[in-house]
Amino acid sequence: MRSATHARWAACAVVTALAATSCGGGGSSGGGGGGSAVLSSSWGDPQNPLEPANTNEVQGGKVLDMIFRGLKKYDPKTGKAQDMLAQKIDTSDSQNYKITVKDGWTFSNGEKVTARSFVDAWNYGASLKNNQKNAYFFGYIEGYDKVHPDSGSQSADTLSGLKVVDDRTFTVQLNQKFSSFPDTLGYAAFAPLPRAFFTDHAGWLKRPVGDGPYAIESYTKGSQMSLKKWDGYPGADKAQNGGVTLKVYTDSDTAYTDLIAGNLDLVDDVPASQLKNVKNDLGGRYINTPAGIIQTLAFPYYDSAWNQSGSEKVRTGLSMAINRKQITDTIFQNTRTPATDWTSPVLGLVGGFKEGLCGSACDYDPAQAKKLIQEGGGLPGGQLKITYNADTGSHRMWVDAVCNSINNALGNDKACVGNPVGTFADFRNQIGQHKMTGPFRAGWQMDYPLIQNFLQPLYYTNASSNDGKWSNKDFDKLVDQANAETDTGKAVGTFQKAEEVVRDNMAAIPLWYQNGSAGYAERLSNVALNPFSVPVYNEIKVS
Question: Rounded CA gap, 306 and 378, in Å?
């Protein structure tokens, strides 16, 4: 997803707030015991309304993962795509697919989940007039160029490649071979939608209705969202608790303090400032596990200063001016690993991770860094300003450390400075409005465990999360070739060639791979993070 993905990978501005009610937090949250007790967890307001095709950041994604189930679901331990609502997905050519939906599934409002539930949802998500951030994910379906043209008005309202055969069957025709297409269908953008979404859209936005193990009970923007276990959920992965109260925090240190004080049950992002204390504070209730997340510095290629001949040398020089090991050791204490490519070790070799692909461009070499930056024409404007959201303390710490490393390499203590933006929502809005004038913090949390997901959404021309608007025809061509390859090994190899184009142009500077970290209260058990670093809420038990 998400920009952290959808990374993917987080948060603010649900346009229409849900009905406000008072909900308790921490140990007082919920009542009863076992499966009826409610837990509280730290959270941030989503950036957009919780439409599946319009959510590409972590905080909104957490909610969608609780209230929706799609054709596929990613195993909470391995990340492997497994059938959920898909009875079967058949193809003979990796371009034409026949999908059969399982019988017996309903939305939490009692509506039946049918083939039409998927087809209508995908058509809505793809349509230009609906302005959905994840529309790009439907780009491989035939007819996308008509419903979402690059310019001008759409000439069709529905994708010609989608056809409802009967109540439980629909077909998908792609505009080219895409052998990994079925594995992408666990991403929230492909979730089904009830008829209520279309017949009373404003009402649905106030209280989104899905087909997952939880149902939204209430939401007060800037405060909290209350989700309750849906007793009628037909899936095998039923909630083992009575619900989850997501409490909004604009500062992760405050959330951690509330956890220690007994006012919060779960923190799923332990702040860097507390890493030195967390083992003493929580002991075995601290989780630190690898996740499909990478942090990078992105650039605004819509600004000519960063998109001219020689600027790739400046970017490569900046990469070599960053002492990744020192920063991760000092600030993040074993929760980050210096990046040597643009994916994640979670993928493994088979999935496309290639340690060292970045080569010397990711090695700390201050002398060579200074030389390359000078050869590339120097820093645009004479100074580097790294923009980041200031509502998480660790960002300020590492940005200051990165700037200090760059300043030392260049022998100029004013060459690089941090440029804080108050909240994540403001930060993301400025990025979306193309207001960046220099590098900015970028994180990617995988939507699904494929190398394709670490490359195409971020670097393909006009891709959904290509915030800096980088464009390279060689990269695009290789991605298209990789997607069309039916042999998985060959596809991965071609994607890695595309990744080499990203490296040679230093389209973004890879910083470090991020572990998922969490801490939880004594009354919780069976707490785990999935490979996306999101708590597996439905499996948590509350005593």
Answer: 11
Q: How far is CA 293 from CA 6, 110, 119, 131, 449, in A?
A: 10, 36, 30, 27, 11
Phi-psi region at 44: left, alpha or beta (left = phi > 0; alpha = psi -120 to 50): beta
Which pair of tokens denotes residue 513?
């791979």
Using DSSP's 3-state secondary structure scheme, residue 253 falls into helix
Residue 19 has φ and ψ, to the nearest 5°, of -55, 135
CA-CA-CA-CA torsion sign (271, 276, 279, 282): negative
One-letter identity of residue 425 = A
- 213 and 237 Cβ atoms separated by less than 8 Å: yes
**pLDDT, tens digit, 9 for 90 and up, residues 189-221:** 999 999 999 999 999 999 999 999 999 999 999
- The total of other beta-carbon atoms located within 10 Å of residue 541's CB is 16
Cβ pair 271, 518 in contact under 8 A = no
At 186 the three-state DSSP class reads coil
Compute the distance between CA of residue 14 and CA of residue 425 in angstroms, rounded to an integer. 10
Say which DSSP state 384 is in: E
Q: Which residue has the tokens 């009905």?
A: 19
Please give the Cα distance from 481 to 282 (Å, whole number). Answer: 49
User: What single letter denotes the amino acid at residue 176?
Assistant: Q
Please count the other Cβ atoms lying within 10 Å of the Cβ belonging to residue 229. 20
pTM: 0.80
pLDDT in tens, 148-160: 998 999 999 999 9
Per DSSP bridges, beta strands 243-248 and 38-43 are: parallel
Query: Is the confidence at residue 368, as pLDDT, over 70?
Result: yes
Q: Which residues 6+ apart lie within 8 Å of 312 measured at CB?
A: 376, 504, 505, 506
For the record, the structure tokens of 81 come out as 């795509």
Angle between helices 311-320 and 366-375 (to 10 degrees): 170
Query: Are the C-beta atoms of 528 and 78 separated by less than 8 Å?
Result: no
Give dist(CA 491, CA 480) in Å, integer.
10
